Amino acid sequence: MKRPTITDIAREAGVSKGAVSYALNGRPGVSEATRDRITEIARRLGWAPSSTARALSGGRAGAVGMVLDRPADVLGVEPVFLALLTGIQRELGPVSLLLQVAPDPADELAVYRRWHGERKADGVLLAGPRRDDDRIAELIRIGLPAVALGGPLGHPGVPSVRVDDAAAVGEVLGYLAALGHRRVAWIAGPAVLVRTRVRAEAFAAVAARLGLAGARTVHTDHSGEGGAGATRRLLAGSHPPTALLYDTDVLAVAGLTALRELGLAVPDDVSVVAWDDSVLCRLVRPALSAVRRPVAEFGALAVSVLRDLLEGTDAGDITTTPPALVTRGSTGPARPGP
Q1: HEC letters along the chain
Q2: Residues in the chain, pLDDT under 50
Q3: At CA 105, angle to CA 80 and CA 149, rounded to 5?
Q4: What pLDDT does 50 receive?
Q5: From the CA atom positions of the chain, what is the Rg in Å?
Q6: Which residues does residue 324 pair with via DSSP β-bridges, in sequence order?
């Protein structure tokens, strides 16, 4: 009989794997009643904690790797990245996290091959899953276990952890439509990313259902310059949007600055919504309405799924707790106009 895992406990308790991890490791994030229930189920199933290092490394490297394809200057101003690392490290415990920035896909693949060949990493967290992602086949080929940070990808050998961004898009557009906005634009990240595709497809579908004929999506990179430039181009048209959604908090703050430079008031002339609520959204004025995603939980769950994968237990795609829209001063009724 196989050893019970936190997946088994989560299934019986009707909670997320993240909640089980918080409860069994004595961390905040669950109520005392939930903690007691999870602890009792774990005792009844005969669950016993294994060494995190042994579970992740199998007596080999004792490290997990993650390669990032964004420039260091972009990562340095993204608070959401720090939240992700916090969740990852909490779940890793004493296990090391190897981080490396790769300038292009070929360099990223070379890093994975080196880590595997030199036994530096027992598994990897695959950042920024892409459409037709050739990293998947290569990781499977060399035998380096991986969990995708985002998805779903539909690859049996590479499970993913995802946030239900499609539901959040529906909540945001429904809110803006109720405020009278009909011309809404989505300033999205690179089209090659899976999460960008999921959000853009949801945006188009919900906009059509709500009758938002003026809805459109434009793509840019994740830099502040990209966000500001896309904002200026959108507002230069004959029928500019009355509401703007941004793929990240950094893009939204840059867009807010561009709107001010154009002499437009937020939210009187244009409403603004950011993705990934962070301290940046609360420090600017007006404070930004934003989609708050469980980023730390996202990272912790990815490590938990990777642990299951390395232990040989079932490890499928899982979803975090739902994101939620937090409304602040950057959104208001649409201005009258044609």
Answers
A1: CCCCCHHHHHHHHCCCHHHHHHHHCCCCCCCHHHHHHHHHHHHHHCCCCCCHHHHHHCCCCCEEEEEECCCHHHHCCCHHHHHHHHHHHHHHCCCEEEEEECCCHHHHHHHHHHHHHCCCCCEEEEECCECCCHHHHHHHHHCCCEEEECCCCCCCCCCEEECCHHHHHHHHHHHHHHCCCCCEEEEECCCCEHHHHHHHHHHHHHHHHHCCCCCEEEECCCCHHHHHHHHHHHHCCCCCCCEEEECCHHHHHHHHHHHHHCCCCCCCCCEEEEECCCHHHHHCCCCCEEEECCHHHHHHHHHHHHHHHHHCCCCCCEECCCCEEECCCCCCCCCCCC
A2: 1, 51-55, 57-58
A3: 35
A4: 52
A5: 21
A6: 292
CA dihedral 326, 296, 126, 218 (to 10 degrees): 10
Domains and CATH numbers, the chain: 1-49 (1.10.260.40), 57-161+294-324 (3.40.50.2300), 165-292 (3.40.50.2300)
The encoded tokens of residue 179 equal 């405020």
pLDDT in tens, 109-118: 999 999 998 8
- Look at residue 268 in the predicted model and tell me its pLDDT: 96
**235-255 pLDDT, tens digit each:** 998 889 999 999 999 999 999
Q: Among residues 160, 136, 165, 135, which one has the least CA distance to residue 149?
A: 160
